[in-house]
Each structure stands twice: as C-alpha cells, then as structure tokens.
Amino acid sequence: MGIFGYLDRIAAEAEARDTRTPEQRAADVAAYEARGREAAIRLAAERVEFLAAAPRYVLPDGTAWRSSDMMGTLRTGRQGDQGRRLHAVPEEDCGVWSGASPALCGAQPGPRSVGWGDVRSEPVDCPRCVAKLRKFGL
Ligand SMILES: [Zn+2]
Q1: How far is the CA of 67 from the centre of ligand 1 (A)?
Q2: Which residues contact 117 (CB under 8 A, 6 or more apart)?
Q3: Is the dihedral of CA 14, 17, 20, 23 positive or negative?
Q4: Taking the domains of the chain in order of start, what are their residue ranges?
C-alpha cells in the first residue's frame, strides 16, 4: 500500500469512528468556520489599531514612512546595522513579504537580507533618518 492508500485508510477509519449525524457534522464545521472568521476579524481589527497607534511620517510629497528595522544577514548591505536602528522606511516596504527599497537615510537591506521588518510602534531613532524627518518638520 502506498502512502496515499495509507492516508485514505486512516481517513476512512476516522470517519467510521465519527458517530455524529451528517447534520451535527455540518453544524460543527459551520461553527468551526465561524470561529475562524471571528478570529480573522479580531486580528484584522487589532492590526488596524496597531497601525493607527504606530508612528507614521507623511512627507510633503505625500509619501508615508514607518519606523522599521532590518532583518537577517546583511553582509553586502549598504548599512549592516542588523536591526540595531529604527529607520524611516517606505510604508509599503515594511514586513516580511515586502520590498527592500532604501530608508530615508539611504540604508538598504542587502541581497542576503530578508528585508525590512514589520512596522514598529517605537519612533525612528536612526540619527540620519531623524535629521531628514526634522528637515520636513516631522
Ligand atoms: Zn536611517
């Protein structure tokens, strides 16, 4: 018996042990899905709240910047500070699946880096980014 035959047998045995009526099963599935939806809605609301509370810097050109740090190895990055500083990073570039464009000060994750981390709740503390923000009165 191959692996799929084996898995089919396990599924069939689990099904045979399930004494619920089809209606009960459907109700359980619906309740499970409703809990999942509630959790997703709660997470999304928490995310919105977090982003609203975290510092957001809007430059005169309309671009929005967030406080974020570099992730991962940065051997060939222009500034290998490895997350010791919080830079002003383009809002859309924060987070694991995002881009790696330069911070306001020019610091940029290297090719070996995972990129910018998620938006942080602490304000930017990179001195060069702070100086640029100050120039814009932010
Ligand atoms: Zn910086």
Answers
A1: 9
A2: 68, 69, 70, 71, 83, 94, 95, 96
A3: positive
A4: 3-53, 56-135
| CA distance linking residue 61 with residue 137, whole number of Å | 13
Least confident of 3-12, 29-38, 56-65, 80-89: 80-89
CA distance 87 to 128: 9
**How many Å lie between the centroid of ligand 1 and the Cα of residue 19?**
61
Question: Given a cut of 70, is residue 83 above it in pLDDT?
Answer: no
Q: Sign of the C-alpha dihedral, residues 83, 86, 92, 95?
A: positive
Three-class SS state of 64? strand
Q: Write down how long the chain is.
A: 138
> Residue 75 has what pLDDT?
47
The pTM for the full model equals 0.71
Measuring CA to CA, how many Å separate 117 from each of 4, 10, 128? 40, 42, 19
Spacing, Cα 48 to ligand 1 middle (Å): 25
